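Example record for the data management plan.
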Amino acid sequence: QVQLVESGGGLVQPGGSLRLSCAASGFSFSAYHMGWYRQAPGKQRELVATATPYGITNYAASVRGRFTISRDNAKNTVYLEMNSLKPEDTAVYYCNANWLALNYWGQGTQVTVSS
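Corresponding structural encoding:
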């Protein structure tokens, strides 16, 4: 049974930080590209950051320099460290795993940045 379970979301003030985690099971985690996506109210889901099986990373321009994606293949877990948060970062954040035609999604975790 494939599972991706996000955690770590919540309410934070502008300029604050959060660390999201995604625990994976039921597939060969180390072979998959992992990513974080987000969807704000009234907007399309967008890619935030990706990590290849051995940790090469890529970021959306809007988060580069503020967010860091990392993965621990021994723990089947991918993380998103979010710093200098802005109200525009408010969204549901989703964990994604992709390998060839296989594409798995978590249930999402809410991040709200507000004073």
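Summary line stored alongside the record: The mean pLDDT is 97.
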